[in-house]
Every structure is written in C-alpha cells, then in structure tokens.
Amino acid sequence: MKVVDQIKEPIITEMELFEKKFYESMTSKVALLNRITHYIVNRKGKQMRPMFVFLTSKLINNGEVNERTYRGASVIELIHTATLVHDDVVDESNKRRGFFSINALWKNKIAVLVGDYLLSKGLLLSIDNGDFDLLKIISVAVREMSEGELLQIEKARRLDITEAVYYEIIRQKTATLIAACCSLGACSVKPDSEEVEVFRKFGEYCGMAFQIKDDLFDYGDAAIGKPTGIDIKEQKMTLPLIYVLNNCSKKEKRWVINSIKNHNKDKKRVKEVINFVKDNGGLDYAITKMLEFKDQALTILETYPDSDYKNSLQLMVNYVVDRKI
Predict the structure, then answer these.
(1) With contact defined as beta carbons under 8 Å apart, do 62 and 72 qualify?
(2) Fewest CB within 10 angstroms: 208, 223, 252, 315, which?
(3) Rounded mean pLDDT, 221-236
(4) Residue 96, beta-bridge partner list
C-alpha cells in the first residue's frame, strides 16, 4: 500500500464526504467558472492539507469530527487552490502537477479572477456559518503567505539573506498554511483549547521540514521531476546555499554571488555552484536542520495515546522528509 493511502486509511470516509462538500462549495451560476472549477477538482493533488485537518480533529476528539471540521477543510483547500492558481500566473508557469495550468488554458486575466473567486468562496463559507475563529486562523495564514513571498523577492534582489531570515521566509511562505490546517482541525472540535496552539506549532514544524526538503530537490537529479538548479536560476537563496556562503572564504563567496547574479542562465556555471554547495557540506547541513524540525513535530505527538490517527500523523511527518517528489 502506498504511504499516502496508509495515511488516509483512518479518515477515508471523511475524505470522500469532504470531496463532495468541497466541490459543492465551488459551484457558481457562471458556466465558465463551473467548467474551470470542474477542471481543478479533477486534477487534485495528494490533498495533504485536508488530511491534516481531519487527522488532528480525530486525534484530539476521540475519533470524532463535526460539520465545522468539514468547513475548515474546505476553506483551507479553497484558499490553497486560489494561491496555486495565482502562483502559476506570477511564475508564468504553464504546468501544474503535469497538467496545463489555468492561465495556460484560459489566460492570466481569467486565472486571476478564478483565484479571487475561490478566495472569496472560502471566506464566505466561514462567514455564512459564523466560524469567525476559523476565519481568523485562515486570514492570518493568507497574510503571512503573501508577506513571505514578498520578503523572498526583496531578499533575492540583494542576495543578503541570513539563516534566520530564510527560516522566517519559509515559515510564512509554506509552514503557515500547514500550521493553519492543524490549528483549524483542533479549533473545529475544541475551540479556545490549548490544543489549537499546540497543533499550530506541530503544523509549523512539519511545514518547515517540508520546505527544506523541497529546497533540497534543487540539488537532486532530474529523475525527481524538478529541474535542478532552478532556485539558483531564479536567485532564490535556500538553506544549503546560505550555509555554504556563511562558511567559505571571501574569494569563494564573491565567486558564488557573482555566479548567481550574473551567470544564472549559464548551465555549466549553475552546475559548478551546485557541486560547490554539495562539496562544502551545504546539503548535509540542510538535511540535519530538516530532521530537527521533523523530530520537534514528532515530539508533540508523543504526548498523545496511541491511535490510528496518531499513527497516520507520524507517517505524514516522516513522509514529508522521505518523499521523492
């Protein structure tokens, strides 16, 4: 059995019902919108975010979820989908999960409007049901994701990023949404409990490990489906590179920065930078940090009694760092 199927097993009924509710939450009177949302739903990814919502709820609530849990999962998936649609426009990307992106098929203007529509649908789903506590969690996540992306763009221009700033970027850009999933799951069944913050932290640690793993793929081989060196070409400063820049000679540092700034389209030079990072311990350091975040997430789960839900969350944390794509 695939790991993702194993993780889903204790919430399979909830996930099936969620898919129906999620599709309903997207419907519109505009035929074009329905055609596009149908296209989105039929090309869904692994759905890790709703899985986090349901597993967290069931872990802390004796295996029970409620209507708020379903709404929380739908809201997070609507918001996440909206950000992906907008990201593809920003990145001028024509593919998403191996399929054509919305902007590739329907052009940028429509893609931006569809993203806005999904965002508003998510917010209204919370407002119409009086889920203001869930809405606050989501709204903070959306704000932080935008700030994280903009901070990364600002720093890429100057290439002056420290390890602390890198962690802040990935916390906002990636970890905040996974943190929101887990705190939503807790808040849907136990509002105002300490567990809302405990699981926000749990999700944050998972998200940090997830993004470092993503950054490591840039140094892998082409078989993983992501072209190597793409972060260097886009002047994105990731942890392996930051570590090496902080631990090499001034002359080497000048060469690396010059390569990234002025020769990032030169395949041979990009490959040299990748090898320099590998040879100087950049990958080993990033892997160590990724495993630290993973362990912090697992430590939080240790305080809970054994259950299928705990087991699935542990599998999920390990999957985040072991995945091949």
Answers:
(1) no
(2) 223
(3) 64
(4) 99
